[in-house]
Amino acid sequence: MPWLTTLATEEEPPVGDATVPVPLSVLDLATVGSGTTAGAALRTSVELARLAEARGFHRFWVAEHHSMPGVASSSPAVILAHLAAYTERIRLGSGGVMLPNHAPLAIAEQFGTLEALAPGRVDLGLGRAPGTDGATAAALRRSDRLRETADDFPQQLAELTRFLDDDFPDGHPYARIHAVPGPVQGSVPGGVQSADRPAVWLLGSSGFSARLAGELGLPFAFAHHFSAVNTVPALDLYRESFRPSAVLAEPYALIGVSAFAADEEKDAYRQVLTGALGMLRLRTGRPGLTPSPEEAAAYDFSPVERDFVDSWLANVAYGTPDAVRAHLDGLLKRTGADELMLTANAHTPAARLRSYELIADVYGLPARA
């Protein structure tokens, strides 16, 4: 079963030594900065994916968010298909697709298509939150699905898995429905159409998905970058709940981390402050484009706003490359994570690309050919 090779590949950088303790990966939100466009942000995503592949990052995921002007990643499957045309080896995936927003069959078809386009390197990361506000979530769903909630996630996941494996039992209403491309079994002339399917991950920022991922024996990705207080408890719950499966013999946990490196600490701070101000506006119902470093530096934070920003930045690994590495290495010791996925929510594309180059350098990842 080729889709079971979700974690280690021949393209993965060497791990377990003093240089690269665990695989390093990238989470991209296609950040749209003030003074620029979504098209420019998506072109930067292509540059970043190519850089990540050239420097030996393990996987490149894109997130699903809606009704957020500063985030252009509303359609992960579309972006991933585009990135597949510009890359050759790096794993591509969703971090994640918000399952309640979509019909399971549609997801199975989209990611089956991606697997056909980029065989053996597609990850389907699934989340149970809508990735947006309630009104937008309602606009995304069919009228007969509006009553579904995050608590229905296990049933939705089971249905999606059946479509991916093409193994609904006889007599099931969907037994004669096939997600194409995919492993069409049934009585279709020619037999099995494809033996591959995307690797399924569960994503979360609390204990619900951690426990479910453990019980199902699936790899788990935790959003440390916006729920740091829950990271260790969720990973502990995942490991305690883990049951070996056909996918994994042992638990495998990835954590998403905000990280930004620059040649000088003050330059890194200027960039991460833009992301913090953007998050402050989002949390207070004022979503917009990611502000420029000049706008963020000039912003007059109230005491309450400054507390929020300071708390947010406390969980961001930023500064010189050595300072970023020290933060990330400390996080690895505290969490025992098997992989780090780095995200840089900042305004300036060139600075974001430079940050990943510097982090690759400090970890001794391969130089660009």
Automatic annotation (TrEMBL):
Q: Where is the Luciferase-like domain?
A: 24-338
Q: Which domain of life is it from?
A: Bacteria
Q: Where are the transmembrane segments?
A: none
Fetch the InterPro entries from UniProt: Bact_Lucif_Oxidored, CmoO-like, Luciferase-like_dom, Luciferase-like_sf
Q: Which GO terms describe its cellular component?
A: cytosol
CDD domains cross-referenced by the UniProt entry: Flavin_utilizing_monoxygenases (cd00347)
Gene Ontology molecular function: oxidoreductase activity, acting on paired donors, with incorporation or reduction of molecular oxygen
A Pfam family annotated for this UniProt entry: Bac_luciferase
Family label: To bacterial alkanal monooxygenase alpha and beta chains.
User: What's the name of the protein?
Assistant: LLM class flavin-dependent oxidoreductase
What is the species listed in this Swiss-Prot or TrEMBL entry? Actinacidiphila oryziradicis
